[in-house]
Write a structure and sequence with these properties.
- The chain is an all-alpha fold.
- It has 2 domains: about 70 residues; about 50 residues, no CATH class.
- The chain is built from 4 helices and no strands.
Length: about 120
């Protein structure tokens, strides 16, 4: 089948194809790594700036437990659900739950941050 000047990855020699795939994966992983690191740094900074000095160690302990200690439990639950419902449905369901939780949190925070309107 003649496609003219159209080239795709399948036409490339094996080594070049492997290198191109590797570079695409590394680029994507680097972007995500930078985003995750930035988010965690911003969250740590925000928590430490907003929490009173006498409570900071307790709050950071709870935060660290939630960030690192709950991940294996969530992975276990997601694995069990994926075994029965399939990975795509599990990702869609858990993604929806995260989105809904984020929206609830957003609206609760926005409601608290709005100044009380006087009659």
């Amino acid at each position: 089948m003649d496609r003219g000047d159209v080239h795709d990855l399948r036409d490339w020699p094996g080594g070049v194809r492997t290198i191109a795939s590797f570079l695409a994966i590394v680029g994507g992983a680097t972007d995500r790594g930078i985003a995750v690191t930035s988010q965690m740094t911003a969250t740590n900074t925000l928590i430490q700036n907003r929490v009173p000095d006498e409570l900071r160690s307790r709050v950071m302990a709870v935060y660290a437990t939630m960030m690192m200690g709950m991940q294996p439990i969530g992975s276990l639950i997601a694995g069990g659900v994926a075994k029965h419902a399939g990975a795509p449905r599990t990702l869609a369901a858990f993604g929806t739950l995260v989105l809904l939780g984020s929206l609830v949190f957003l609206f609760r925070v926005v409601r608290r941050l709005r100044p009380a309107q006087e009659p």
